[in-house]
Write a structure and sequence with these properties.
Shape: globular
Order of helices and strands: HEEHEHEHEHEEH
Strand order of the largest sheet: 2-1-5-4-3-6-7
CATH superfamily: Glutaredoxin
CATH class: Alpha Beta
Distance between the termini: 45 Å
CATH topology: Glutaredoxin
Largest sheet: 7 strands, mixed
Radius of gyration: 15 Å
Number of helices: 6
Strand content: 15-25%
Structural class: alpha/beta
Helix content: 25-40%
Number of strands: 7
Length: 178
């Protein structure tokens, strides 16, 4: 797996960058249920249930415990209270297995938000978030509104703007839906 990740990074460095997110703003978000972890504890996540409480920030990332993915998790953890003030739920998802996500949720997500396991890649595929050069997720962030629509999508392997992009989108949505 390390070799595949290294190949994916090398391909991107050579200019073979992944395409933008395929799910367009306004598209219906595919419903799904997946196993995940929050604070090291396993649970079942249901998108439909989460959307009944407010918008969902669903962010895909390549691999738990890699540098960029760890830094991105730290950024989302630090911003989790800001997202909560707008009624938004943050959920990370990768190709990693549940045991890895249990550890990642407590160590790197700092018990602030859940991460989901998608080892078979079904959710990643449904959201057009697969890296074209490796069997793992691209770095794609979506904001999904309670009406099950994509309100915002952002794709960039550089993790640094995913939190600010999604937080701004959630703030704009909330301002229009007080």
């Amino acid at each position: 797996m390390k070799l595949l990740f290294a190949c994916a990074l090398a391909a991107m460095a050579a200019g073979l960058t992944p395409a933008e997110a395929e799910l367009a703003v306004g598209a219906l978000a595919p419903d799904f249920t997946a196993q995940g972890a929050l604070g090291g504890k396993e649970f079942t996540f249901k998108l439909n249930e989460a959307l009944s409480r407010g918008p969902v920030v669903l962010y895909f990332y390549p691999k738990s415990f890699t540098k960029g993915c760890t830094l991105e998790a730290h950024d989302f953890a630090e911003a989790s209270e800001k997202f909560a003030t707008y009624g938004a739920t943050v959920i990370g998802i990768s190709h990693d297995d549940l045991a890895t996500q249990e550890k990642f949720s407590s160590e790197e997500c700092r018990n602030k938000f859940a991460v989901l396991a998608d080892p078979d890649g079904k959710v990643i595929a449904a959201y057009d978030a697969k890296l074209p050069v490796a069997p793992m997720a691209n770095r794609v962030s979506y904001v999904i509104t309670p009406d099950h629509k994509i309100a915002h999508s952002y794709t960039a392997m550089d993790y640094s703007q995913h939190v600010s992009q999604t937080l701004t989108a959630v703030q704009k949505w909330k301002a229009a839906h007080p």
